[in-house]
Amino acid sequence: MIIFNRPNYIDESRYEMAIGSYIGRCSKIPGVLAVATMGSVGAPGLSDIDVIVVVDDNFHKSNSHGLRVKNIDDELFIHGPFIFNKSSALNIQWIIFATNIELRSGYFDFPLFEDLDKKQRCILAACYIIDFCESRTLQFAVADYEGKVDARAWATRTWSVVHSVHLAVCHLGLELSAEEARLLSDVTRLRENWQNFRRMNDIDILDAYKGAKALNRSLFLKALKYLHATDYEIKYKQQSSCIKKLYFGGAVDDFNVEVKKFTLFNRNIYYWNCKHGARFQKHIALYNGTSSDTILEKTMQSRARYVGAHRAWLQKNAKYAKSMGGYIGVDAGTDGRVLGAVKHILYYFAR
């Protein structure tokens, strides 16, 4: 693996300056109600910034350009932003796992994850692990396909598996095996060395990358087993979205990903062929189901409904903001019709 784009130590004050600059940008945009951040800056230079912006329900898409985080501070890893209209923000905990929310500007009373019913929290925690780890696996697959590790980006991405571990242990009551604990130590060692001002070497970078990749897969399968029984009959063989095809069959815990790439106008477009077993098929099926006889069905369908409504609003009202949103395994995405059509055509040849 080729390692490039090594991170630099950054003074923590620059994070506050970047947040302040973004708030100043948002203050000039009609319809912005509040700006908040998630998380903390535990390792300046590696830590990222997650920004949440709440806007009016009737926010106009012509103003969404100004909500981008581009050109705030290109040396900082600034995610998002997460743009929520007021109605969707009231259901934020059903859309993303939002913790340590700190209001920075304006006012909005964000609901807390702890406000939900305990059973709902357990189901949603398992869903967040499954959905996030599945999406992260696609990113691992691209890096493996290219044979390159962006050290700056992956130093942040690998740390996210620590949050998945927290969900698994604290909310689902799952225990890490000795091997999983070892993998976790490979991930945390990279950040601990950084915090102690030790040079980031290739071995630690690759150990963290490989550790996070293996642990990501393990947590994905553990959460699936926690949430879904094995006695599920496969009812359809494949399901597709714009840039991903899911194949179902084989072992109940099957999980393999193949990457293909097209380059269009100097832009790389990746496609994934993913093979899954019955557990993940049941997971997708429950999101798309109509029966609501159990708390599991009701909770997963509610999550799918809130994620879908938020994505539809983003496409209509904030399509130029490059906003992130919730993810439930198979999404139409927020591409426009033309780009979406092009991707579908190219995907036909990538199968």
Question: What would you note in describing this structure?
Answer:
With 351 residues, the protein is of the alpha/beta class. Helices cover 46% and strands 18% of the residues. The protein has eleven helices and ten strands. A four-stranded mixed beta sheet has the order 4-3-2-5, sandwiched between helices. The protein has a four-stranded mixed beta sheet with strand order 7-8-10-9, sandwiched between helices. The protein has a two-stranded parallel sheet with strand order 1-6. Strand 9 (255-264) and strand 10 form a beta hairpin. The longest helix has 29 residues, at 118-146. The radius of gyration is 20 Å and the shape is globular. The protein starts with a strand and ends with a helix. 37% of the residues are buried. Mean pLDDT is 89; it is low at 332-351.
Mean pLDDT: 89
Structural class by helix and strand composition: alpha/beta
Helix content: 40-55%
Q: What's the total helix number?
A: 11
Q: How much is the radius of gyration in Å?
A: 20 Å
Biggest sheet: strands side by side, in what order? 4-3-2-5
Q: Tell how many strands the DSSP assignment holds.
A: 10
- N-to-C CA distance: 26 Å
Spatial shape = globular
Describe the largest sheet. Answer: 4 strands, mixed
Helix/strand order: EHEEEHHEHEHHHHEEEEHHH
Report the β-strand fraction as a percent range: 15-25%
Unreliable residue stretches:
332-351
